Amino acid sequence: MRITVRVPATSANLGPGFDCFGLALDLCNEVIVDTEAEPGVSWEGEGAGELPTDGTDMVSRAIAHTVELQRQIHPGADVPAFGLHGLNRIPLERGLGSSSAAAVAGVALARVLLGDAGFDDPSATFAYASELEGHPDNAAPATYGGLTVFAAGSGYVHRLDPHPSLGPVVLVPERLRLPTAEARSALPSSVDRKDAVFNIGHAALAVVALTQGDLDLLVVALHDRLHESVRGAMLPEVAALLDDLRHRQLPACLSGAGPSILVFERDAHVVEALPDGWRAIRPGVRATGVEVVVEG
Ligand code: HSE
Fold first, then answer.
1. 8, 172, 192, 252: most buried by Cβ count inside 10 Å?
2. Average pLDDT, the chain
3. CA-based nearest residue to 264, from 224, 219, 230
4. CATH code assigned at 209
5. Residues spanned by the domain of 252
6. Does 52 share its domain with 115?
7. Is the Cβ atom of 111 under 6 angstroms away from ligand 1?
């Protein structure tokens, strides 16, 4: 049996939707598991040469995690030996959900290997992947595609269609990397009520602007007061570029915890010359989340 799983990059937060909003981007990692191949793990593309090949990578851990969960229901559950090959297009540690994509891929693969007849029902994939990886605001769009709202506390996920006119651009710094755990540890554990109120209003506006394609409104709506200023202080080069884009009336925010920036081009307002060391990716929005193809 050969299983191919395709999972999109995701941009979490979208400014004020801290830990709640996420957007799927049409930039996908592919993982192939083949039960006829020599057992082992290999990678090509982003992160090849630095990702582990001893089974401690996030895809392999998510497979093992799913098998463990299944054994709590069916004690004899197991998967056959397999070779795993990953083709990575999502840059690592740049705020584009590479770790969530790996977790979602692993859970989806395990469900097929375990003979889960409902493997194409995404809700268990989302639940297992976010429990393991810890970032449901990335796991939700990676699983469901489109624009997702994850309601922390209740665990409710709602998927929306972003307006088709949206043209997301991801600006990726080649030399800067920021593990999410480090970017989170700098955040204060409590926030001022004025800042919370600011984010509630702007988050609601962001949903309206993203679904209606109102890019004038989006310029305002993507502002945040819960996380971006702290992170900007850690990443002055990123903060300077973000300020510059906003001054040019482009809707922009940090992508996830950074250091990449998410920006939406509109009319005459497009991303032009970038500072040295930055690249622009124009992936488009991805309407669908994880895809699984089974052969043999
Ligand atoms: N919402 C997370 C954060 C990023 O900003 O720390 C990815 O889940």
1. 8
2. 96
3. 219
4. 3.30.70.890
5. 168-281
6. yes
7. no
Instruction: Note the pTM of the prediction, 2 decimals.
Output: 0.96
H-only helix segments in the chain: 58-73, 98-113, 122-133, 136-144, 180-185, 193-212, 215-221, 228-234, 236-247
Would the pLDDT of 173 be above 90?
A: yes
What residues pair up with 61 in beta bridges, in sequence order? none
One domain, residues 207 and 231: yes
215 in the same domain as 147:
no
As given in the structure block, the two tokens for residue 225 are: 């007061």
For ligand 1, say whether the CB of 254 is within 6 Å of any of its atoms.
Answer: no
Ligand 1: residue whose CA is nearest its atom 1: 19
Indicate if 135 and 254 belong to the same structural domain: no
CB-ligand 1 contact for 94 (6 Å cutoff): no
Record the tokens describing residue 74, joined without a space: 């069916």
**What's the domain count of the chain?**
2
